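Hi support team,

I submitted a single chain yesterday and got back a structure, but I'm not sure I'm reading the token output correctly. Could someone confirm the output below corresponds to the sequence I sent? I've pasted both exactly as they appear in my results page.

Thanks,
R.
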Amino acid sequence: MLSPILHTMLRVLPMRTSKFGLVLILLWSSLLAAQALSPMEIADPAMRKLQQKYYPRLKTIAAELSQHKFPYAFYFSRKLDIEEQQQKQESQRSIRFERYNNHTTLEITGNYYAAYSGTRLDADHRLRQTFVDVILPILQAAVPKFESDADVEFFAVEISHHVLKTVMGGINGEFPENVVVVIPHELAARVVHSTGLADQQNLMLDAEVFLSGQPTLLWLAGERPVVADERPSQSPPEKKEAEIVSMHSGSGQLTLPGAKLPTLAPVAAPPELKAEPLHDATPQVLQTLQEQYRDAVVRMTREQDSSAHFVQYAPPAFIEFKKGTYLQLSMTSTLDSASQGSQYRQAALAFDHHISHLVRPILSYFKDSSGFDGIDFSTTIKITGDKEGAHAESVEFVLPLSAMRCFVEYDCTGQQLLNAGIVLINGERVGLDLQVAEQR
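Hi R., thanks for writing in. Yes, this is the structure output for that exact sequence:
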């Protein structure tokens, strides 16, 4: 049976098409199929059954990626780190089902024929570039094909690129570097549907990422902070200027076909993505705080209601969040009809037009606020004229008091205030870049 793609191509061919043209089309179709392993090549009976079941989808993924314009030559391959001329002669069957830590995983491997300057681009930036240029497009082609299928528990992408270095007293060389990303099904779906690097970065903190076999963090926006358990490097810092050159050679085989992926050891999250609690959040402590600040809360609610628009059925209350103590203020933010857009745009506008203007007056009621960690501005965003609430979004800005004081004293920007806290949209944590989000 001919594939839908081949049917389409044959349908548009004139009747006078030469046999040579038909042979080229059949060859092109066979190459697409070759990028997915034949079910008979898979030894594991369960994985072989899945390969057979989803084989048409795997060929569709291959077809889409064959049309994608990578910055440099990319080949599917189960042999990594081989010369491009050799790669052209090797099988490109690499899309397959494997077991990863006893989980069903769709694994895709390949060689990316670009080499990075080791003196001008450090490891974090090389990892970032390969993720953006190669791994993300692969996920965007593969993940949507399986969003409703529980059979696929993980996606794994393994890519080999090269690094140009000078070693052994001035000898220039080209060395392999292997990038592996292992991501759970649900998380992968959220990554491919996200629209900004900051959001993808936050999501990818929960994925498993390896650089040359070592677990690492994928840092997509800005400079990667130094986490607490990292020791300073003894070597001088590398420059951050990007330089990529075409790669035409490689040496050796980086991994063997079917080699098991490593297991990720726990890695500390970047400091600015955490709101470290300073106080216990037991029920007794929360009740004590409720009584201690009762008068201040009542006065604040009465005097600031006209600007804050507090929700009457959900009075301010101290809550536990990430093991810390926060005063939750439930309110409504109303935006005009011109503010419609993505949920990130609405959240950014709600902060700029509403929440940021409440920080100074509300903090003034809690000058003696050493007993709790911060304030949770929990708001429901409504659009003027949207009577049925079709565009309503629920957003929480969980802000530490220390960052709020910095903002009040004009020592921090609104963006820095958000970066120090946590933003939740409809219960999901997001990264919110105000300038970028407001343009969506």
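A quick pointer for reading it: Residues 326 and 374 are 5 Å apart (CA to CA). Let us know if anything else looks off.

Best,
Support desk
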